[in-house]
Amino acid sequence: EKPYDHALLRQVASLTRQLPAVDTSKFQDEFLMEYNDALLMTHLATMTKGVAAINELADRFNVAYDKHGRRKGFYSPGLLQAAP
């Protein structure tokens, strides 16, 4: 086991004592806002990846089971024909 460098430890302790206190309500409010923003971004990224995966699965399903070789949707030609 290596011996501790006491001079370095004293310097680190001196630097940490010089830092401002972070126990203010303003700091807590800003920290929570940043934390919530980060959580929201993570949640939205996860949802976006999930929706993209479902969309890809639906596209593959449509390609595999479409009998006419094209996707049928709301605007398919049969729906747009005028009644006689």
Describe this structure in words.
The structure is a single chain. This protein has 3 helices and no strands. It is mainly α and 84 residues long. The protein is elongated. The termini are far apart. 0% of the residues are buried.
Keyword list:
84 residues; mainly alpha; 3 helices
Give the topology, please.
Elements: H1 6-18, H2 25-65, H3 77-80
Brief overview:
By secondary structure, the chain is mostly helical. The chain has helices at 6-18, 25-65, 77-80.
Taken from the alpha-carbon principal axes, the silhouette is elongated
Order of helices and strands: HHH
The major β-sheet equals: none
Mean of pLDDT:
83
Helix coverage percent = 55-70%
Question: Helical element count?
Answer: 3
Class computed from helices, strands and strand pairing: mainly alpha
Number of strands: 0
Alpha-carbon distance between the termini? 94 Å
Low-confidence runs: none
Using only C-alpha atoms, the radius of gyration works out to 30 Å
Strand content: under 5%
